[in-house]
């Protein structure tokens, strides 16, 4: 679940010796191409590397950490063949801080202005927070937003803990395991501000209209670090 939950982790596996690929060794899948295992990992990882020499490891590790921790977090996979595992080499490792991009991603100012206009017109707005709020450490920003606009907040399964549940604006959780209050408020809202939420079938009650969300006619403002998720399951305002 590391990929779907946006959890940063590194999987290091062995592999057949580089000079024996294609022989169908115990550690090899070679029906379609030699050493097919990395293809299995591709679907559930952000990036894959195969080391062919020990000297490559620092470069691979730096890139793996950068990919794993940059943008939307996720798992990475490194394969180290058995003969490479047995090698030794003198290498230099740089500080990780020198290999990871710094700074934060900021939205288009025009998009922010339009979102604010939609919120101003709302009669029954609600904020839906997902796991991205926790991963991005955006707790205080969400709290400030809710208190400024006096807007109730609900959480998805992965968003639990992203907003204080003893706060007067906390309205419960949404989805198949959500609360009656949370689902009712979300489904009757005319504007939904989603932060770090992917709108999975679990958090959207299998997309049954009116159970958790009513989009449309409800209008959606979607904030997420991964552009792939915005507008994927529900149209945005």
UniProtKB/TrEMBL annotation:
Q: What residues does the Thiamine pyrophosphate enzyme central domain cover?
A: 112-236
- Residues passing through the membrane, by range: none
Which Gene Ontology BP terms does the record give?
Answer: isoleucine biosynthetic process; L-valine biosynthetic process
- Example GO molecular function term? acetolactate synthase activity
Gene Ontology CC terms, in alphabetical order: acetolactate synthase complex
Q: Which domain of life is it from?
A: Bacteria
Q: Which InterPro entries match?
A: DHS-like_NAD/FAD-binding_dom, THDP-binding, Thiamin_PyroP_enz_cen_dom, TPP_enz
What family does the Swiss-Prot or TrEMBL record give for this protein?
A: Belongs to the TPP enzyme family.
State what protein this is by name: Thiamine pyrophosphate protein central region
Taxonomic source organism: Pseudomonas amygdali pv. mori str. 301020
């Amino acid at each position: 679940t590391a990929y779907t939950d946006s959890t940063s982790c590194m999987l290091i596996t062995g592999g057949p010796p580089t000079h024996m690929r294609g022989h169908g060794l115990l550690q090899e899948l070679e029906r379609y191409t030699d050493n097919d295992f990395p293809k299995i990992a591709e679907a559930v990882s952000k990036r894959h590397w195969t080391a062919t020499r020990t000297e490559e490891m620092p470069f691979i590790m730096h890139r793996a950490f950068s990919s794993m921790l940059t943008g939307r977090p996720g798992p990475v996979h490194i394969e180290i063949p058995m003969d490479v595992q047995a090698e030794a080499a003198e290498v230099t490792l740089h500080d990780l801080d020198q290999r990871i991009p710094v700074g934060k991603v900021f939205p288009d100012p025009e998009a922010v202005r339009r979102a604010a206009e939609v919120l101003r017109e709302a009669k029954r707005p609600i904020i839906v927070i997902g796991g991205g709020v926790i991963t991005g450490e955006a707790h205080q920003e969400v709290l400030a937003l809710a208190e400024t606009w006096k807007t109730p907040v609900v959480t998805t399964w992965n968003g639990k803990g992203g907003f204080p549940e003893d706060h007067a604006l906390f309205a419960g959780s949404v989805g198949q395991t959500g609360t009656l209050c949370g689902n009712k408020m979300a489904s009757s809202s005319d504007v939904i501000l989603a932060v770090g939420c992917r709108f999975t079938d679990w958090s959207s009650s299998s997309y049954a209209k009116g159970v958790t969300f009513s989009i449309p006619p409800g209008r959606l403002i979607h904030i997420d670090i991964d552009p792939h998720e915005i507008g994927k399951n529900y149209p945005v305002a």
